């Protein structure tokens, strides 16, 4: 439990009851979810797969993957977020196994059990992202895929993700992100490589404030997604 930022957990726990409100602070997650689900399903078709969502929060992506035919587990360290996630299953009728546990501890118990592991919008909220990446690599089967998404670290990402998103457009509550914790794609690729994961695809996610539309594009300056694959050997 050393790789935990108590302030980050408290921040998201305080908002947990609004997780499934598409007009709340979590609106961006609702809007990007179809994009990331389609991207994951394209590279690793989810139907019939055993999938783990690391840092699942209230379950937006986990439920969507279950809806795509996967057998899904979700782990998080926010008890309040997990309670919301479990309650929402009664409304959606989906099946997801949610557990309150860290990625590292879960990996010690379930090494090599999953076809697909996702860790989205989570690495920038932990003290040691490399430890989470290594845990994800341990959890996936040989030949399986691990998907990450996070924020790049540069002047443009500071302007767009913090000044723009939190202060000007108010897409996110102030203080949602700490620029010092942003991760450059090369840094994340290195963490993945050191954990035994090979990079398969890097793509960016952009937001147009005029049309209010998110897109997956080549521009990785701010938000980006990384698809990796664990070696067969």
From TrEMBL:
Provide this UniProt record's keywords sorted from A to Z.
Methyltransferase, S-adenosyl-L-methionine, Transferase, Ubiquinone biosynthesis
Enzyme Commission number(s): 2.1.1.222, 2.1.1.64
Pathway entry:
Cofactor biosynthesis; ubiquinone biosynthesis
Q: Which GO terms describe its biological process?
A: methylation
Q: Which InterPro entries match?
A: SAM-dependent_MTases_sf, UbiG_MeTrfase
Identify the enzyme class: transferase
Q: What molecular functions are annotated in GO for this chain?
A: 2-polyprenyl-6-hydroxyphenol methylase activity; 3-demethylubiquinol 3-O-methyltransferase activity
Q: One short Pfam family name for this protein?
A: Methyltransf_23
Catalytic reaction list: a 3-(all-trans-polyprenyl)benzene-1,2-diol + S-adenosyl-L-methionine = a 2-methoxy-6-(all-trans-polyprenyl)phenol + S-adenosyl-L-homocysteine + H(+); a 3-demethylubiquinol + S-adenosyl-L-methionine = a ubiquinol + S-adenosyl-L-homocysteine + H(+)
Superkingdom, according to UniProt?
A: Bacteria
For the keyword Transferase, the answer is yes
- Asked whether the UniProt record includes Methyltransferase among its keywords, one would answer yes
The record lists S-adenosyl-L-methionine as bound by: 36, 55, 76, 120
Function per UniProt: O-methyltransferase that catalyzes the 2 O-methylation steps in the ubiquinone biosynthetic pathway.
Give the family this protein belongs to, as stated in its UniProt record.
Belongs to the methyltransferase superfamily. UbiG/COQ3 family.
- What name does this protein carry? Ubiquinone biosynthesis O-methyltransferase
Q: Which gene encodes it?
A: ubiG
